Amino acid sequence: MTRSTIKAWFLVHKWSSLVSTLFLLMLCVTGLPLIFHDEIDALIGQDYEASLAGPASAEAGLPLDAMLQTALAQRPGEVPLFMAFSQDSPLLTVTTGPTPDAPGDRMTLLFFDRSTGEALGPAPSDGVMDFILQLHTDLFLGLPGMLFLGVMGALFVVALVSGTVLYAPFMRRLPFGTLRTRRSRRVKVLDQHNLLGIVALGWMMVVGVTGVINAFADPLVDNWRSGELAEMTAQYAGDAPVGLADYASLDAAMASAQSALPGRSPQFIGFPGGDWSTGHHYAIFFQGDRPLTQHLLTPALVDARTSELTDARAMPALNQALMLSKPLHFGDYGGLPLKLIWAVLTAATIWILWTGVILWLRRSPAAIERRIDEIATGAAAGAAA
Amino acid sequence: MSGAAIKSRPRRASVARVLAVPAVLLVASIAGLVLGLTGDGFPDGLAWGLLSIPILAAVYAFARRG
Predict the structure, then answer these.
(1) What secondary structure letter does DSSP report for A244?
(2) Cα–Cα 20 to 30 A to A159, which of A82, A245, A351, A364?
């Protein structure tokens, strides 16, 4: 690499990092407790997934129509928005709201035991965790906040790539894992920054890229609804939306959907008029039937007036990428040991960001030329710091 | 810089050699992350093992720094 190429990559690394560091630090610090949100929720409230006995609510239990009646009786005047199933326990959740397109803060999440029909009350809310999640997702700014954090995530990816490009020439005279401790503080911090950066690179890259994809979740769902979903249900385009009074049997709808997608397990139902359906359909989302595809959902659109299947079709590639991005970003798919690994690597990322800030704060005038020399010739144990 | 200082410098390794260990760690991390998605039980164990490799590499480097 020529000296000017190195200088260009150095400046890319410096500025992509500087602009995003503060937000990345916030994302790491808020992300740490979020890794363990299942465990924290179970500590604070009742852990229904562990305590309810019986078949999984996705498989069997009381009729869905009966469960929906129980839910609506608790929220008179409201309409159902979602019904979600557990693959492990009889826990079934129903989300209601004043209107089919109610925003998140007007929704109510209710818990039920599908094997006994018992209402378990509203989902316990934890103000602190909700605050942390909101800050992590959108800075309390809604969609613009999400997209902004998505851009910060993209800068993080740029910083990872440029950092790796600079790592190669810098390390040509040093064995892997060298941490020089008898030199200046700058050298000590620089070696830690480089070692942790290259070691955590794969994980940071995956969590960064999937974070960016998650930031675009809302536009991707809107895009699916106005594109493929509208196409699948084109014959309904001019009809008035179906009202609650005209809803046909959910159990019959589930049976129609399952005859089109045999052997699949349902994950949730989007009711008519919400973000995940049309004004005329129950959208029943099924998991894939193999381990590798279990995170990929396929919607079956069932006419909410007749319970007859309209169409079932896999979602577009970008939406599939979004569905795979969620577990890869959250780290919630491999038990507690994977969460602990997530926490350790998050802590390493915080240290990489912090040492990056120190290296920038301790720069001196005209230092950039010395930095470029150091990278271009390769750092060495005997060279001046 | 004196001639002695230059002589004492280790030879510059090729880029391929410098990036060999990082490439192994990168592949282990990504393989662990993806394999863990393919199911519970054995795939999860594989994910823990593979993702521990980069962490252990850093622990080893910090333990023997001097």
Answers:
(1) G
(2) A364
Q: B60 CA to chain A: closest CA distance, Å?
A: 8
Instruction: Count CB pairs under 8 A between chains A and B.
Output: 118
What are the tens digits of pLDDT across the range A263-317?
A: 899 999 999 999 899 999 999 999 987 777 888 899 999 999 999 999 999 999 9
- Residue found under tokens 């305590």: A51
In this structure, is residue A10 part of a structural domain?
yes
Label residue B38 by pLDDT band (50, 70, 90): confident
Distance separating alpha carbons of residues A197 and B51, to the nearest angstrom: 15
Range of the domain at A80: 54-123+243-304
> In chain A, what is the greatest distance between 2 CA atoms, to the nearest angstrom?
81
Residue among A182, A199, A383 minimizing CB distance to B58: A199
| Predicted local confidence at residue A281, as pLDDT | 95
pLDDT at B6 over 80: no
Check CB contact under 8 Å for B65 and A292: no
Segments of chain A with pLDDT less than 50:
383-385
ipTM attached to this prediction: 0.88
Based on the fold, state whether residues A31 and A146 are members of the same structural domain.
Answer: yes
Contact criterion met (CB < 8 Å) for A177 and B60: yes
- A103 & A61 share domain: yes
A63-72 pLDDT per residue, tens? 999 999 999 9
Nearest to A181 among B22, B28, B65 (CB): B65
Distance from A385 to chain B by nearest Cα, in Å?
Answer: 13
Angle at alpha carbon of residue A165, lines to A162 and A171, rounded to 5°: 130
A59 plus A112 within the same structural domain: yes
Which two three-digit tokens encode residue A155? 């800068």
Whether residues A160 and A32 fall in one domain: yes
Confirm whether A153 is domain-assigned: yes
A77 lies in a domain?
A: yes
- CB contacts of B43 in chain A (<8 Å) are 291, 334
* Residue B3 pLDDT > 50: no
What DSSP assignment string belongs to A71-115?
A: HHHHSTT-EEEEEEE-SSSSEEEEEEESSTT--GGG-EEEEEETT
Q: Quick one: CA dihedral A329, A330, A334, A340, positive or negative?
A: positive
Mutation for testing the B interface, residue in A165, A176, A181, A292 having most B CBs under 10 Å? A176
pLDDT at B10: 67
| Domains of chain A: total | 2
Task: Kindly state whether residue A236 falls inside one of the protein's structural domains.
Answer: no
